């Protein structure tokens, strides 16, 4: 006769077997999901659907691999930009480092404001003051020297709110997205208003984007022989501003192909998304990252001077761009 204890053991073994199968299925699903930090929302579905359409053989929207170009803004799209842009934080620290050589800065704007941490006075100096600050702190050295300064600063600097290195404050869902696009035959480019030589030293390690696929603002450089060594010397003159209407120009100059997907987060990205998506067939994708998670990062859009999302947000509704709600669409913001 079938013993009662045998029945219990059989039932227990069956339960364990079912649990094991469910665990296996869940694990397999997690491994097959290329975007595990994204919630299963309409935003994720729209992105995945686009990738499947343009990469599927036989799809009416199929796009050959060489034409699969995706462009990503950096500040506020791939990493944190509040309360001030990371590159501005770098420039302010550089002012403090250089201040002993310039005692006149104690009474000269915008340097006085930078030394005193007076953001209101710094903002009042306007674009002219900010350009002067950048030119003074980013020029007068070789490109190699500047790269080392940036690398050393990023290794030691910490974000005032999160107390973590800035290179750890990259958005994990977007890092996954970059990898997902590359796994599907896309070339991924950073197209940022930030300095090109500020981003290039670390972009490949952090994002998997090599230096030649980074487009940004730049200052003029010239070739010089220094102690029989060929160098590129950074001059205190603006060369190119890769922001707003400058972004499509920079894309055209450095990529030579119109992207089929563009990701941004502010009005500074409006023209880039227009240039990418308003070209008709084949399929195009425009995505805006909307900062809505005050608990894990910041919440802002129309009423901010840093990363304002106003005109582009209105345009998204008309153009049919995907607006990613960070709080609703992402499981978490940063990598744990």
TrEMBL record:
Source superkingdom: Bacteria
GO molecular function terms listed in the Swiss-Prot or TrEMBL record: hydrolase activity
Record EC number: 3.1.3.-
InterPro entries: HAD-like_SerB (IPR050582), HAD-like_sf (IPR036412), HAD_sf (IPR023214)
Alphabetical keyword list: Hydrolase, Magnesium, Metal-binding, Plasmid, Signal
Residues of the signal peptide: 1-30
Designated name of the protein: HAD family hydrolase
Organism: Rhizobium indigoferae
């Amino acid at each position: 006769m079938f013993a009662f204890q045998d029945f219990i053991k059989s039932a227990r073994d069956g339960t364990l077997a079912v649990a094991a199968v469910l665990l296996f299925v869940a694990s397999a699903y997690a491994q097959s999901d290329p975007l595990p930090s994204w919630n299963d929302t309409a935003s994720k579905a729209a992105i995945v659907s686009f990738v499947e359409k343009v990469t599927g053989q036989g799809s009416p929207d199929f796009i050959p691999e060489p034409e699969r170009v995706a462009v990503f803004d950096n500040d506020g799209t791939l990493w944190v930009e509040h309360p001030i842009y990371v590159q501005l934080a770098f420039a302010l620290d550089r002012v403090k480092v250089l201040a002993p050589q310039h005692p006149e800065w104690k009474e000269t704007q915008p340097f006085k404001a930078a030394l005193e941490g007076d953001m209101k006075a710094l903002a009042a100096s306007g674009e002219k003051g900010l350009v002067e600050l950048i030119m003074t702190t980013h020029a007068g050295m070789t490109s190699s020297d500047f790269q080392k300064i940036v690398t050393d600063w990023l290794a030691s600097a910490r974000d005032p709110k999160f107390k973590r290195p800035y290179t750890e404050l990259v958005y994990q869902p977007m890092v996954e997205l970059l990898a997902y696009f590359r796994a599907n035959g896309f070339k991924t480019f950073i197209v940022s208003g930030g300095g090109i030589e500020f981003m290039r030293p670390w972009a490949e390690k952090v994002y998997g984007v090599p230096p030649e696929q980074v487009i940004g603002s730049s200052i003029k450089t010239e070739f010089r022989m220094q102690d029989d060594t060929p160098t590129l010397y950074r001059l205190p003159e603006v060369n190119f501003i890769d922001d707003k209407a400058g972004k499509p120009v920079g894309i055209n100059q450095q990529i030579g192909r119109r992207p089929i997907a563009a990701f941004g987060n502010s009005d500074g990205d409006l023209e880039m998304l227009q240039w990418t998506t308003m070209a008709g067939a084949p399929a195009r994708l425009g995505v805006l990252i909307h900062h809505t998670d005050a608990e894990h990062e910041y919440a802002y859009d129309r009423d901010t001077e840093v990363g304002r999302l106003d005109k582009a947000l209105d345009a998204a509704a008309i153009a049919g761009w995907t607006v990613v709600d960070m709080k609703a669409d992402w499981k978490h913001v940063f990598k744990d």
